[in-house]
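User: Hey, quick favor. My workstation is busy. Could you predict this chain's structure for me?
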Amino acid sequence: MAVRRLWIDSAIYDTTVAGSAPLPEELHGILEFAVLASHRRAFDPMESAIGEAGKHLLANTEHLHGDWTLIEDYPLSREMLAMSRVWQSPNQRERVIAAKGAPEAIVDLCHLDTTRCAVVAEQVRLMAADGLRVLGVARAIFAAETLPGNQHDFEFEFLGLIALEDPVRSDVPQAIAECHMAGIRVVMITGDHSATAVSIARQAGIPADDAVITGAELTNLSDDELRTRLANTHIFSRIRPEQKLRIVQAFRARGDVVAMTGDGVNDAPALKAASIGVAMGARGTDVAREAAALVLLNDDFSSLVVAVRYGRRVFANLRKAIVFVVAVHVPIVGLSIIPVLLGWPILLLPVHILFLQLIIDPACSIVFEAEPLEAGAMLAKPRRPEAHLFDKQVLIRGLWQGGGLLITLLVVYAGTRFMSNSDGMARAMTFTVLVISNLGLIHANRSWRQASWRRSGSSNRYFGWIALTTLVLLGATLGIPAISRLFAFVLPTPSMLLGGVGVAAMNLLWFEAVKHPFGRRRSLAR
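Assistant: No problem, here it is.
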């Protein structure tokens, strides 16, 4: 933020036009008292900008008063959107009062006539239309020892207007556009003039053609009227701190999930009331950070979009992992129970299950955790608030995939046992198809939007290493006699092994086919 314009009735100074030209003498007073109305150790960006402008434009003049003593401070209030600071000069008895705030508040303090008010209002409108934040500045001299309890009791003289520019960061329009594409609505709640808010909203990409709700208008709206207006309102201007809380509560009363950003002490109630309070970590107050659920370390709006992107990725990948866990245990349970019911020899021994649990199951979590966000996931609408990580859809998908795999494994076992008349060979073939199919199951569930063979640029090196390791260990269980005996295997013929690979490929087609009835119409990667 930086000071861009200084205005009085007889002169105007624009820093972008003036370049290195000095500040005209008649404008020294407005900047002098704007500095006096600000904290010396400024925390607010606006006051910091005023202080920097004073150091630069008033350097080597008598208008900077480092030796003056602060006597009293009249802060902003609900009734008066202006602040005054009372100073004591070491070489004069009277106190000097400097005030700055919303132009309408300063005009009220100065008791300007209607004609002068109209001139000031028009200048404020012109500056605000350029996206500038406009403050009025006033001064007063007070001779009595006892200070009044209200700013209105001072005889203020209107000095002029000071306008500051708070440029929209270059990445904000793109971030807001991504929010809109992702079904996330962005609204602006600000204390700025309505024209300033509209100008900045247009620069940022927030819809600005609808009506703006001002703080004064909000005061006169009932809760029902406010909820009705929220549907078509994206800008709230001249909003007082306590009104932020009411706006957040109104949005939540409509059933919306609300993320509220803020940095000040006055933002804490709204941050606490929001579904997700987001505090600024760099310039945010301790109170705001403690009230919030998230803290942005870099105070960058685009970080919110990154958080949404990662949130959708984590949610989608967890669901994929759950589907795999359900699907992979269906054949394990089935191959453990069905042979007993049919009077067949035991098909899966503890060592087989241990192999699956130690190699395949942990592998799935590593693979799915590393899986990037699917293309188009940020174009989907946000999931419903009542949506669960594990639901009927996940269960059915897992059961269909696992059920199809179980049927093919039973066919493989029965067919191999019939052709070879060897339980060990049938067990080896069934286990081989199970392990290779499990790798196919992981690969198929890496994406629920596209077939696994149609994905491009979606590499996952963890899956490659895990698949290679699993196949090497599977080869060891089949080819090394000592291990093969431990697994109760008899090495199948090459043609049988080739047929087993073909069956695993058919299972992959089944896993892919199951994705389409569930996924394309209702994306689960939201």
